[in-house]
TrEMBL record:
<dbReference type="GO" id="GO:0003700">
    <property type="term" value="F:DNA-binding transcription factor activity"/>
</dbReference>
<dbReference type="InterPro" id="IPR015424">
    <property type="entry name" value="PyrdxlP-dep_Trfase"/>
</dbReference>
<comment type="similarity">
    <text>In the C-terminal section; belongs to the class-I pyridoxal-phosphate-dependent aminotransferase family.</text>
</comment>
<dbReference type="InterPro" id="IPR036388">
    <property type="entry name" value="WH-like_DNA-bd_sf"/>
</dbReference>
<dbReference type="InterPro" id="IPR051446">
    <property type="entry name" value="HTH_trans_reg/aminotransferase"/>
</dbReference>
<dbReference type="Pfam" id="PF00392">
    <property type="entry name" value="GntR"/>
</dbReference>
<keyword id="KW-0238">DNA-binding</keyword>
<dbReference type="GO" id="GO:0003677">
    <property type="term" value="F:DNA binding"/>
</dbReference>
<dbReference type="InterPro" id="IPR015421">
    <property type="entry name" value="PyrdxlP-dep_Trfase_major"/>
</dbReference>
<dbReference type="InterPro" id="IPR000524">
    <property type="entry name" value="Tscrpt_reg_HTH_GntR"/>
</dbReference>
<keyword id="KW-0663">Pyridoxal phosphate</keyword>
<keyword id="KW-0805">Transcription regulation</keyword>
<feature type="domain" description="HTH gntR-type">
    <location>
        <begin position="11"/>
        <end position="79"/>
    </location>
</feature>
<protein>
    <submittedName>
        <fullName>GntR family transcriptional regulator</fullName>
    </submittedName>
</protein>
<dbReference type="GO" id="GO:0030170">
    <property type="term" value="F:pyridoxal phosphate binding"/>
</dbReference>
<keyword id="KW-0804">Transcription</keyword>
<dbReference type="Pfam" id="PF00155">
    <property type="entry name" value="Aminotran_1_2"/>
</dbReference>
Amino acid sequence: MLPLITGAVEDRSARGIAAAVSRLITAGRLPAGERLPTVRAVAGSLRVSPTTVSEAWRNLTLAGAIQTRGRSGTYVAGPSPPRFTRLGRPPVTLALDLSTGVPDPALLPDLSDALRRAGDGRWAGSYLDEPVLPGLEEVLRERWPFPPERLTVVDGALDALDRIVAATLRYGDHVLVENPTFPPLLDLLQAAGATVHGVPLDESGMDPVVLRRLVAERRPAALFLQPRAQNPTGVSMTTKRAAAIARILRDAPHVLVVEDDHAGDIASAPPISLGSYLPRRVVHVAGFSKSHGPDLRLAAIGGPATVVEQVIERRLIGPGWTSRLLQGVLLDLLTSPEVADRIAAARNAYAERRITLLAALAERGVTASAADGINLWMSVPDQQNAMVTLAAHGIGAAPGAPFLVTPLGTDHLRITAGLVAGGHDDLAGALASAAVQLGRGSGPRGRGHPRGLM
């Protein structure tokens, strides 16, 4: 075992050791359950400091590749399910499934006319055509929160994040994200072998004090954030906070900023972007699934040409481009006054649903946030017991743990408040029964809230 590992190491830095072990695991030469040599044994064989090997082991642990079992030693980890799968639908049919995080279909625009107009064949083109329809690019540039050097369209916001991660990150890179944040992003970063650090949130966005410290200590390669209607908390970054974050990042030119504006036009907050301050270092993702339809599978990426062109070029040996037929549908929707009115009505409806449910929960002493978007982040004494309690009422909710980089001071559930069109009092009563099932502040899970959002 020891000769196998040391023989695979070419770069004796912590990152190089971790990369070599990761390749052995991926190739199956280090199978799941295999016990690894001790840190001192590896360090002695490689003639490096035990601290260097410890850092390599730490990076592999954070990436989920290995796991420590106390005095029993360190082992190759078995395959772990992605965080996203832990948000899956309940195994039984429930009367009201609020675990999904999807928009209300009744509030989406009707695509019939746009599909009919786009179906006349005018979008047919060649493999060598530009990846974005010229008319759509013109409209997107007009809507962009800062002038992007380059712009392209991909198959949804998560596809955009996946491609940006692949184009910009290397194994062992330190990355900063919000805590809590969108679970699939954490899955993507883990798969890339990144070392992830969570920055707590308050009502204005990322905590600048913690952000400044982590930027100085960790020298991250990238910062991922959701500028408005943050999933799961609903927090939107204020202009003042954006300026504070930009001041921190001006002194850290090595940090690439990736903004995921997934809520788009259903967000009530204005489209504030760090690209207004650092346009050559911000990649902005504009999603259209929540506002115009999940099955359009469309999102735009705009920012520095060095990043966006890598995404475009890599796609040439894969899908090539995103359906120009669907791009034509989106162009039709974005230029339709009737659709704009429809989405404005949906935005107002979502705001009313959030406000009404939050007020009903507050009356019952439940701590929750839902400042924007379609989600509500609710404190509970015990996540699992709360979900069981809600299931008894025929209600599904998403567990909070998959959203976390590091634990908060209490457990949480994410509730898709945007799907609650009526019956707020009955729902609030059921949610309250889950939020107080062990008694607020009592028992082993009755912990105080830390600095940051809940």
